[in-house]
Amino acid sequence: MKEISTEKIIETVKNLCIEAACNLPQDVEELIKKHQASEESEFGKYIFEQMIENIEYARKENQAMCQDTGVAVVYLEVGQDVHIVGGSLVDAVNEGVRQGYTEGYLRKSVVDDPVFDRKNTGDNTPAVIHTEIVPGDQLKITVVPKGAGSENMGALKMLKPAEGLAGVKEFIIKTVTEAGGNPCPPIIVGVGIGGTMEKATMLAKKALTRKAGEHHPDPRYKELEAELLKEINRLSIGPQGLGGRVTALAVHIETYPTHIATLPVAVNLNCHAARHQEAIL
Q1: Torsion angle, CA of 163/164/170/176, rounded to 10 degrees?
Q2: How many C-beta atoms surround the C-beta of residue 257 within 10 A?
Q3: Cβ neighbours of residue 79 under 8 Å, at least 6 residues apart?
Q4: Cα angle vertex 27, ends 280, 140, to 5°?
Q5: How far apart are CA 141 and CA 124, in angstroms?
Q6: What is the pLDDT of residues 230-252, one digit of tens each?
Q7: What is the DSSP letter of 161?
Q8: CA 265 to CA 31: how far, in whole Å?
Q9: 9-46 burial string, b = 16+ CB within 10 Å, else e?
Q10: 3 state DSSP class of 66
Q11: Are 201 and 268 in contact (CB under 8 A)?
């Protein structure tokens, strides 16, 4: 049995929050540069240049690359042979978020009540935490700051099975079309298909943590991802919604078995700043 202290978890989450906000992962940056070459709009090319300059500056100066440092979404893969010592795992994650957003001078955007008071908690807690028990004796922590501009443009639809593949594609394209420039394109499109209502939305969000541009292992879904990306980039929404060839950098699909009577589909969009960092303890 491997012991991992809550103090170590706090320190790790704190550092990941700051790193995620200030240092865009290399896979996302490479995908942005790859698509920059295919942008035909002169203004679109200029926007790409500004994005790349901003990414480099944020990394160099250790400053947030976007003012919306989002809700801290934290994925925990907890090895079944791990023993957390020194306190609560959830409390440790939230303390790490609290310290990271304070010491990193990151914007605090969480309100304590969604409808009535909407009073800012002052430290960006609580985080949204997803925990999965896995084999082994390691704890993998992935921090995904999720800004509101892209999060607000997500959607869920409970399709009838008879709507099939055509219905799935139509809903995804419609969601991106209606989002327009709001999610700060070029976007990464996370899609969850199957499971239940909540499972589909969780799959769509988790799809955004995949290595940028990496395809689904099933060749049928790989082909669907490529087809959807091509169709989305025909919409001419373009970088920052100001017109152009590149509206999306990638489409990531995740699936799960579902009931014979339903076909849930969720879409979760991420702006070009597809921020995420991870560590293994």
Answers
A1: 120
A2: 7
A3: 2, 134, 135, 136, 137, 138, 139
A4: 15
A5: 18
A6: 999 999 999 999 998 999 999 99
A7: G
A8: 26
A9: bbbbbbbbbbbbbbbbbebbbebbeebbeebebeebbe
A10: coil
A11: yes
Please report, for residues 95, 103, 269, the alpha-carbon distance to residue 17 in angstroms, rounded to integers and kept in the order given.
Answer: 11, 10, 20
Give the strand pairing for 82-85 and 2-5: parallel
Length of the chain: 281
Question: What is the token pair recorded at 280?
Answer: 């293994």
Helix or strand holding residue 21 (H, E): helix 6-22
Q: What is the pTM of this model?
A: 0.93
Q: What span, in angstroms and rounded, lies between the C-alpha atoms of 277 and 281?
A: 14
Name 142's bridge partners.
75, 278
Cβ atoms within 10 Å of 230's Cβ, excluding its own: 11
Query: Which residues of the chain have a pLDDT value below 50?
Result: none
* Cα radius of gyration rounded to whole Å, the chain: 19
Could you state, in order of their start, the residue ranges of all structural domains in the chain?
Answer: 2-20+65-146, 149-274
| pLDDT tens readout for residues 164-203 | 999 999 999 999 999 999 999 999 999 999 999 999 999 9
Question: Residues 173, 234: contact at Cβ < 8 Å?
Answer: no
Cα distance between residue 195 and residue 181, in whole Å: 30
Provide DSSP, 202-249. Answer: HHHHHHTTSPTTPPPSSHHHHHHHHHHHHHHTTS---GGGSS-S-SEE
Cα distances from 236 to residues 31, 41, 254, in angstroms, run: 19, 10, 26
Q: Which stretches of 132-218 are DSSP H helices? A: 148-151, 164-179, 197-207
- Helix, strand, or coil here: 278? strand
In sequence order, the β-bridge partners of residue 252 are 190
